[in-house]
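Much of the work behind modern protein science is quiet bookkeeping, done one molecule at a time. Below is the pair of lines this work produces for a single protein:

***
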Amino acid sequence: GIICGRANIVKAYRTGHGSCLVRGKVSIEESGKQAVLIITEIPYQVNKSDLITKIADLTKNKVIEGISNIRDESTKKGLRIVIDIRRGEIPQVVLNQLYKHTSLQTTVSMMLLALLDNQPIVFTLREMLHHFLVHRQKVVTKRSEFDLAKIKTRLHLLEGLLKALDRIDEIIALIRASRATDEASEKLQKQFELSAAQAKSILEMRLSRLTGLEQEKLLSEQGDIQKVATELEALLGNPEILMQEIIKELEQIKKTYSDPRRTRIEGSIEGFTEKDLIPDDEVVVTLTRKGYIKRVMLDVYSVQHRGGKGKKGMADLDDFDDVMEDLFVAKNHDQLLFFTNKGRIYTMEVYQLPEASRTAKGRAIINLIPLTEGEKVVKMLCTRGMQNKFLVMVTKGGVIKKTPATAFAKVRSTGIIALGLREGDELAFCAMSGGEDTIVIATVLGQGIRFKESEVRAMGRQAAGVRGIKLRGKDFVVGMQVIADDRDLLFATERGFGKRVAIANFRVAHRGGFGVRTIPVDKRNGKLIGVVRVGDESNILLIDDNGKIIRLSPQEVRTMGRQAKGVRLIRLDKKQIVSSVVSFEETDDEKELLLEADIDPTLEPVVIESTTDESIVDIDVVDEDGDASEEVEDASIDDADDIEVDEEE
């Protein structure tokens, strides 16, 4: 099981008695479209059969209504109880009910009671260790005294035998002249100054001991046991050497008999919370346009090469229009800010989001935060590192606003206003900035503008903002990046193509302009769906409208010119489109992820780049219908009939 919290353990060690909260080890898994609880460990002294019976009774009496079935799948290899959760129920809620109503969570009492001088005493841990060490000192001392006495006796006998071997002829003659053993013993003691024990040992000595080899053995034995006797005398005469011997023996006991701890200890001395049970691992938080949210462990998505088909990131959604809208990489203990299209902010810790498998749909976010009618989350941000930062927000209509991040340090459970919106407009994107950066805004029709952040003054939460980019026709903003370094930009289109462009290729203009071309928007590429910053150590996550995710390195995409058409990032079916793109930096722990090769060997992405001549700012290779051709890999100015120049540019 799992001990929840260390405070009671410390109390028991300090006072000699206490109790601790112990829970069974339970994991939440997905079985098809149904969640299951799998119990693999139960608390100490809890009977498995009684626990299953109790859960069944609670389910039958409708005390716990979220359970549909219970199975005991235990074998000789270990305990395993599987609990099926009804559809629509939250597994964590059902688990909390089991903790509350059954012995899956129990309290175990502790008392350090032992006998000292035949008297029962409740010890503190320090007192018990002290008396144990005193006991070990007595044991080692008495054992050493016994061994030393035994060795000294043996040394005494060896001295007699060696003395007899030196004068063996005289001793043999003396023994032959004696009428009885007692007479021989007395003569030996008197004539050769031997003790009774030495005389007896000589009389019992075999003739084989008279050989030279046996004499050498006696001398060797005398030297060895003399050395041991010296060590024992030093141990008995020096307390420090005695303690070193005790330590050595305890370490040997540990090496011989120790085994790994079976009960995990989690939580803190100050108290136990749900947060203490959840490791601070990196997770991928996903949000769909229909408002379904979930978190998945980041290492589920291992690195692939560009052009791969990706991994299934979500089960097929019921509604065709429901696609992935946002991806976010964070840690379980981080605080998330949820920005809605109506300009409000809500907050929640990452671990409070429902954890699900890679293919699970997730849970409706409206059940987690109090959204109003028509309100939906459009962006999530992490509060980690918000000190001395600004929040930059841009609307679909191209309006931009900058607000100090400290203004959002405390968010009420009902949410707070992030910005005032003009009629018909809504919040589209937001990011953190340092105050002196540059900002890039991208639109769905492939336009983009870069300007200094200083051109947008800091405003209060109620302000509406200023114009960031002018839009033509049905164009609207799909992405924004705050640029603080020289990392490249990666543009991704809905047909799975994209390109990496050096930020230097976008000159710094003034806010409020129409901007320049970022990536051609045509039949092959489709519309622009987002822009992210990438470096050599970055990783990219792409997700299509069916929930399939591919994770790749930007090193797979070479840097191109601003007018290049790009390369294939993810292979899609004809009716599929990419809905989201996100970039993140790996920590050292994630750098050990597997590199999976999932590449179609026939795939050679077409790269069509513009000329380096600045007088021709945009060249598209087209087919007979006027659409961009995927078959042509290169084009020259001589092919005048096949080239169209954007006269507006």
Remarks:
- The two ends are 68 Å apart (CA to CA).
- The longest strand covers residues 34-41.
- The CA atoms of residues 46 and 103 lie 7 Å apart.
